[in-house]
Amino acid sequence: MNEHGNLPPAVMRANYLKGVVNGAVFTLGEAISNPGLVLSLLIRQLGGSLTLVSLIPVIQSTGYLLPQLLVGGHVQGLPYKMPIYRTFAALRIAAQFAVVIACFYATTIPSYWALTAVLVCYALFNFGGGVTTLSFQDIVAKIIPPAQRGRFFGTRQFYGGLLAFAIGGPFVRWMLSDESPLSFPQNFAIISLVSMLCYATGMLFFAQVKEPAAIQLIPRQGLFDALRSAPAILQANHRYRNFIIVRLCLLIGRLAEPFYIIYVTEQLHLPKSTAGLLIAVSAVAAASSNVLWGRLGDTKGMIWLLRLTGSLAIIPPLMLYASPSIAPLGAIVLLGWLLTSSLIAGISADGVGIASMTFLLEVSPPEQRPLYMGLANTILGIGAVIPIIGGILVNQAGYSLTFIFAALWSLGAIALAGTLQAEPQQRTVP
């Protein structure tokens, strides 16, 4: 019996629905407190430097990815992963609530204390996310058959994109505009509060999923055992190793993203409410492309999807690089140019996300899935520190060189993606 065979069809359908609702509502929460747009503006308004802004993706990536090797070897020996998911989901909600409090009191306490509190709580939120993601991926692998995973992730992001477009973008734009009923920092506090409620709702839905027990279990591994096994895993599984290298390069290629909104508002002199428009357009990208990406990934293969959507990542930094030449054509034309860039970035990021998560599940042995995912994500977490170079580049060489540097890394990633090999397998999509 496979790991999906001990669940009745009605339970599998209910699990699928709960997983989709989880993804849709959680995506709305992520859109509302978008790290590359809203959080970047918050850090800047609290007096944070460009170097601190460059730490946002570092905190996000390392917070998500580094803890996974710490717990991957332990989790693989557990028949059920849901208790770990629920525990760390509660930690994430508490951390996000602390961000709300820090924002509310940002003008009544020294700004550096508010800034420190926001960054520390954001780190805790992402640390908890690293552990919940590891549990989440293993649970999904047990409740969603391989031939349906691309569609599953695509559907989650499709509805999440619709919610972000209809609610998230307009809400953020309203809160950050001159017509907002609240001024700084209360507007950011309300944004953080609504985001927290979305996160809590999404995680509550997934916490109700009925998880089957793992069929194959191997003994738990401590951190040092997992580290000792890492070289052998990387050497033996070349598809797994090459995938990690490509993802690492794509990750580095996004090092300029935290500076997009800062560049738009400080260099191109567009209003801060532009962040809401960019969120809405990125959400349209997700809503319009994710179901297509999921189906194409299920039929043509996740390697094909990774190459296609990864190639699109080259375009946005080049468009930002060219934006000063577009500015003389007028604010409307410039805004349209930037919104197009955001649209392409959203299509690319969501496609790469679907392909990466699904392909990683495919190349990880079921009995060692948490260890394999933890190792891959930890390596990516270590590499995620590299985007701090973006802050140094902006300070030392300016935005233009930073955008070119990012585009070149994405180009290199696509060249390396040619080394990835898809494993032929029978796919039946009901």
Description:
It is built from 17 helices and no strands. Helix content is 78%, strand content 0%. The radius of gyration is 21 Å and the shape is globular. With 430 residues, the protein is mainly alpha-helical. The chain has a single domain (9-417), classed as MFS general substrate transporter like domains (Growth Hormone, Chain: A), CATH 1.20.1250.
Index terms:
mainly alpha, 0% strand, disordered C terminus, single chain, 17 helices, Growth Hormone, Chain: A, 430 residues
Number of helices: 17
CATH topology: Growth Hormone, Chain: A
Nearest-angstrom radius of gyration? Answer: 21 Å
β-strand amount: under 5%
Order of helices and strands: HHHHHHHHHHHHHHHHH
Cα-to-Cα separation, first versus last residue: 20 Å
Mean pLDDT score, rounded?
82
CATH architecture: Up-down Bundle
